[in-house]
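Hi R.,

Here's the chain you asked about this morning:
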Amino acid sequence: MSPWSKQFVSKFEAKLNQLELVKIAAMIVRSHENTAASQAFIDGLLEKKARLGPEATLFLEITKIGIDLRSPVAPAGEGAMADDGAAEVAAVEKKLAVKKALVDKKIEVDALSGLMDT
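And the predicted structure, written out as tokens:
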């Protein structure tokens, strides 16, 4: 995100419903090809957890997990090309890590569901 757009958004972000704000942010980061920039943008928003509240924070954390899934798998050896088997293992390990992160977040979602049912 450009410095201009960050400055523009910062002028009104505190006045918006925080869950709606992070939904907009999630749509923006999902449209970017650069997953590192998307993650950095989400990390910047997550620095404001106190203002965001639990629902918006959880939404962003789950969005970040989805971006992790989209990001390329790092090669097995530094500067070396990984063979097909090693690349496949790395991809499976990454998917398992993402699945575990989502399962961990499900507990938080379930806890919030009880609060949001009223």
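The radius of gyration is 17 Å.

Let me know if you need anything else.
M.
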